[in-house]
Amino acid sequence: MGAAQSFNTSLSFNTSLTGSDINISAAAAAKLKELFEEVGDEMDALRIFVSGGGCDGMTYGMTFSDEQTPFDSVLDSGDYKVYVDSVALSYMRGVEIDYVSKGMGEESFVFNNVFSATGGSGACGACGSSGGGCGA
Length: 136
Fold this sequence. Notes:
three-stranded mixed β-sheet, globular, single chain, alpha/beta, four-stranded mixed β-sheet
């Protein structure tokens, strides 16, 4: 066995992000502000995450977070914070987070332009098998 490696735990990956790093539409920003007013001081931030996802490419998601990790970059809007770890941030380039109404009271956050950010083709051989199907 070789010598044990030691890692420098004083390294900090925390960086400040700007609107050019994380593109949040005006509609999404307004909805996020509203949601953070509702949860009050219970949550510190919104965490954006990315996971692998079949033929549709990467799957994007968001959740409330009450803990910042040493590997997070932070966008501070003044009304709320957004945490993104360094791996997820590499897949966020060119992605816009929007909040849309699809009619009949159906509203949701959407991640636009994800194929540009992940290099996906948008083509799917097994429609509906990974996160919304083809053309979703």
